[in-house]
Amino acid sequence: MKERRGSNLSEQKSAAGSGKKTRILSEMSDSIGRLLIFVNPNSGYMKGVKTFKEKVEPELRKKRIDFELIITDGADHAKNIVETRDDLAEFNAILILSGDGLVFEVLNGFFNRPDHWELLHVLPIGIVPSGSGNGLLSSVFASRKFPLKNPAFMNKAIDLVTSATCLAQPVNLFGGDQDKIQIHAQTRDANYAAFLSVGWGLMADIDVESERWRKSLGSNRFVVGALIRCCNLRTYRGRLSYREHTLSDDSAHSPFAVFGRTAAEKLRDCTCNKPGTSRRNRSEPATNRRNEDIWLTAHSIEGIPPIDEKIPDEGWTVIEDEFVGVYAMLTSPLLQMAASHIANDGPMQPRAMLDDERIYLSFIRKRDLPSRASLIKMLIALEKGNHLKMDFLKWVDVSSFRLESLTPGKGRIVLDGETIGADSIQVTVSNYRTAIISDL
What we know:
Elements: E1 2-4, E2 23-27, E3 33-39, H1 48-62, E4 65-71, H2 77-84, E5 93-98, H3 100-110, H4 116-122, E6 125-129, H5 135-144, H6 152-161, E7 167-169, E8 182-186, E9 191-194, E10 197-201, H7 202-209, H8 214-217, H9 221-231, E11 236-244, E12 256-257, H10 263-267, H11 292-296, E13 317-329, E14 359-365, H12 372-381, E15 394-405, E16 413-415, E17 418-419, E18 424-430, E19 436-439
């Protein structure tokens, strides 16, 4: 085996000034495949690089799996690499050591590529939980009854992604026949691929404001943030519009082995069909939102207007009120089930099932909340899924919803754990798919 250190990126230092190189290549003459690996050195307890060196790398070498390691040095580093690399199809998979934020970056990097439709089907994503929020992987593990507590949670994830026989799995390893649904999130300025959640108000505030304790508390930062926010409760005036869940037609897809053939080699046999032409009137002015036409043709249901158009009079429910918070669990793009967990100890929507094709939308209105104590009880009950019994927490299954803040600049919208700097968002189930390394 030889290890080669490349030029260009390999000469860059990390933003934290650690002096560590941000790119390392490992090549073996008898390798069975090649991974592109992103490690966020600042996620969770900031042990991502150590986890890779001590636990992941030895297994990769033992299994004869080549890799290119990139240590991210700031926001959108991974996204820009995925978007611009012209050799992405030469890898067998992408492996991420971080929390949900880096998964969000990589996924949206895909969607800024002209070949994104083809690559999504043949270049799977693997995850080793190294962040304080690992909701996506927790949802995958919960569906398979895999362990959700460390160290078993971490060890199982490493076993999966370093196995020479791992599969990019359909929904259900024991007879499932569907690939993974993805969500289209749209603001006034941009289109996003999303997989986990949309938050506004209470849950978004807890997520963002507890960032200051990421290094010292890890995932426990959410507990501290929740207590502080409940004691100093905020409310937000907004308009919530939604279209209740509608079943859509779908087609079956088979699992495939991760190693043995690169994504480029799999593409030669790919029979995946691209979306058709846009339903938007071509005479209308073009929007500044990137990939607008592609997204509008990929919705699972008809009749969803772009965010800058009026909500239809029929088929939609509109609520304008003072909200404590709005939170939506999205149908995962990496597993066709609702992403049931917001972290490995927080089953936000435990009734989410495999083959789900819906968004679980929840909201709390100020006038429905009995007291701050009731809110604290709800957050405590969240760990075991008993929060669903709280009368003031309203749930509805939807295929699309639009959220608009009626007090611009007040309250933040958080998408998959990332603040997106928008006062409104529309979210719709789409037909876009990708794959995840999820079993042996």
